[in-house]
């Protein structure tokens, strides 16, 4: 792939970018350790994760703006994030511990700086290598831990978030990979979709369906352009797979897929939303800060009754942004991400930029049913893609240039 950072020691960048993305993975992996092994060991993993995340981020980030629009709104977004941090800041021991070890509290406010990671070919190669090996690991862990899924479905959900997300990016950048790497990525995403369907995790079902669907669209309308044979072959293969999947689902919906069959149209959040909007009254514009909560009944397994507690999460990415930073946070977020996606998808000359544009738009869709800002590879990819899409230099690289140096 084309290298836009020839002045940088590529060996150093290669090592640092690998460790940086790996450090974000380790935080999510810590959640799996929490559910399966030990909370103490999980915090050890996560301590290593955020320390290396901070150190490597400091070494890697380069604040170079090719867009004055992006520069203006990113710094406005950053200034508002600082306000969110100090709005009701709590420095008690328990609060600081939550800031350090919660996926959703403090760290998502730093993830947007991933937009300033270097964008040379060595960076993409290292990311793709790691995503490929994580896909391999996901297939292994899915077999190894499948017996725990119905005991605690959170284990499966965390495995999908941690291990298979990068495989979606590999599928979206189909042209730049070997057949075997494509195969592993495809198998990982299909297994993730199957597991989430069996467990009726509708939000992650949507995520993985979108990866498959838009990878097909990008292949059909961009990567295979000029080849009628490739287009027709792809359509036939996909049609056969979709029809086969439909018949398998119909045959097994009373057994393996009975949970999703019964919950497909179930509304499990209407009551929660009522409590959320009631708790956000008079805070709609500026939010309730990093520690923002709302009163909501939650089922207690010990008492077998609903307990009224302060919740700091709402199962909708836009509402989560609003809880912490109000309408202002949501508007600033959209003013950055929507133009970035448009630039990457429609005003670029290479598949990498288009894939980054799709990553952004898929996240904007995911934020409707879930898509919570968090310290994760998926959210890091969104902001890295924002940086790529605002780089006119990268968007204007011709396909032949990237392929020749791949």
UniProtKB/TrEMBL annotation:
It comes from the Bacteria. The chain crosses the membrane at residues 17-37, 43-61, 73-93, 99-118, 130-150, 180-199, 204-222, 228-249, 327-346, 352-372. Keywords: Membrane, Transmembrane, Transmembrane helix. This is O-Antigen ligase. The lineage of its organism: Bacteria, Pseudomonadati, Bacteroidota, Sphingobacteriia, Sphingobacteriales.
């Amino acid at each position: 792939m084309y290298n836009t950072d020839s002045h940088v020691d590529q060996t150093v960048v290669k090592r640092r970018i690998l460790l940086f993305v790996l450090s974000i993975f380790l935080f999510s992996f810590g959640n799996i350790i929490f559910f399966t092994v030990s909370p103490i060991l999980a915090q050890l993993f996560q301590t290593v994760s955020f320390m290396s995340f901070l150190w490597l981020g400091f070494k890697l980030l380069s604040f170079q703006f090719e867009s004055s629009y992006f520069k203006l709104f990113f710094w406005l977004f950053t200034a508002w994030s600082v306000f969110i941090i100090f709005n009701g800041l709590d420095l008690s021991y328990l609060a600081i511990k939550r800031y350090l070890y919660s996926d959703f509290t403090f760290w998502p406010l730093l993830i947007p700086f991933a937009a300033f990671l270097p964008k040379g070919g060595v960076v993409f190669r290292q990311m793709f290598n790691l995503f490929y090996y994580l896909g391999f690991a996901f297939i292994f862990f899915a077999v190894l831990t499948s017996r725990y899924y119905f005991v605690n479905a959170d284990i499966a959900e965390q495995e999908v978030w941690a291990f298979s997300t990068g495989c979606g990016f590999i599928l979206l950048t189909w042209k730049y990979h070997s057949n075997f790497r494509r195969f592993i990525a495809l198998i990982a995403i299909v297994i993730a979709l199957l597991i989430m369907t069996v467990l009726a995790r509708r939000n992650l079902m949507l995520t993985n369906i979108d990866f498959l669907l838009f990878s097909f669209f990008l292949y059909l309308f961009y990567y295979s352009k000029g080849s009628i044979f490739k287009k027709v072959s792809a359509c036939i293969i996909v049609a056969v797979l979709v029809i086969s999947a439909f018949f398998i689902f119909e045959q097994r919906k009373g057994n393996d897929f009975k949970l999703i069959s019964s919950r497909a149209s179930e509304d499990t959040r209407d009551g929660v939303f009522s409590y959320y909007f009631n708790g956000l009254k008079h805070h709609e514009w500026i939010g309730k800060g990093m520690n923002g909560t709302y009163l909501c009944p939650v089922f207690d397994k010990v008492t077998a009754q609903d307990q009224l507690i302060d919740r700091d999460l709402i199962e909708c990415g836009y509402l989560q942004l609003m809880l912490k930073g109000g309408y202002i946070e949501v508007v600033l977020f959209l003013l950055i991400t929507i133009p970035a996606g448009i630039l990457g998808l429609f005003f670029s000359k290479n598949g990498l930029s288009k894939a980054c544009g799709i990553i952004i738009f898929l996240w904007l869709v995911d934020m409707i049913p879930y898509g919570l800002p968090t310290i994760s590879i998926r959210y890091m990819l969104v902001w890295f893609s924002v940086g790529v899409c605002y780089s006119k230099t990268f968007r204007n690289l011709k396909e032949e240039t990237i392929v020749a140096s791949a």
